Amino acid sequence: MSKLSISNMNLWYSDFQALKNLNMEIRENEITAFIGPSGCGKSTFLKSLNRMNDLVPGCRIEGSLLLDGEDMYASDFDVNQLRKRVGMVFQHPNPFPMSIYDNIAYGPRTHGIKDKATLDEIVERSLKGAAIWDEVKDDLNKNALRISGGQQQRICIARALAVEPEVLLMDEPTSALDPISTAKIEDLVQELKGKYTIVMVTHNMQQAARVSDRTAFFLTGEIVEFDDTTDIFSNPKDKRTEDYVSGRFG
Ligand SMILES: Nc1ncnc2c1ncn2[C@@H]1O[C@H](COP(=O)(O)OP(=O)(O)OP(=O)(O)O)[C@@H](O)[C@H]1O
Questions:
Q1: 178-196 mean pLDDT
Q2: Which domain does 47 fall in, by range?
């Protein structure tokens, strides 16, 4: 069974239709990449996968979005639980203005974990999971805003891991980072897919080609093509995909 199963999905911002008849099966323990030109709906679709668009006035969604076969838009589906199961990492690293330790412990604390030894263990496990433990283990009380952008992004990934999600949504997670930090995040994402299902928006086609298992190409709110990443980049079936991946537009 797919981890996320989307069928006949349409989304409107007031009277503007931003997503049109989307259908997609997102498999467990794979990295799925969304590519396409600016404004084609990649972020809108990504945010729909943990109901972040609920917060946008005038946003309306039709169709079926299932997590492990359950309708995540059902009125009795617990949104807090959904956001725990489906975590999000944003384009610009956005650690909270508090210590590294408290950034990671924040989510578990809001879910009721108070015991110091348990929190210590979660903080260490999450920072190790985000491949940043060795760099910060002696500085856990340092303000998370006083480390590099690449480190901040890994803190944000650790913060997402701390509540033990099943799916990680990443919206251009490396676009604000230098090449070395980008390579670290790409390596990390590859490691994380052993435990998590990862969905990533990227502007960087080489990145999609390097890290993802399957790639969806979006254009004006539609999915033009969704296939194995190697096919999308070396054997696309749609002329528009071919034009985009070969750099003819976008
Ligand atoms: N809150 C909003 N209210 C109204 N329109 C919106 C809102 N957010 C996005 N849109 C519009 O929906 C369309 C899709 O935007 P979206 O941000 O999903 O595209 P994108 O492919 O992620 O673009 P980019 O690569 O530039 O981030 C665009 O036309 C955008 O202007």
A1: 91
A2: 2-246
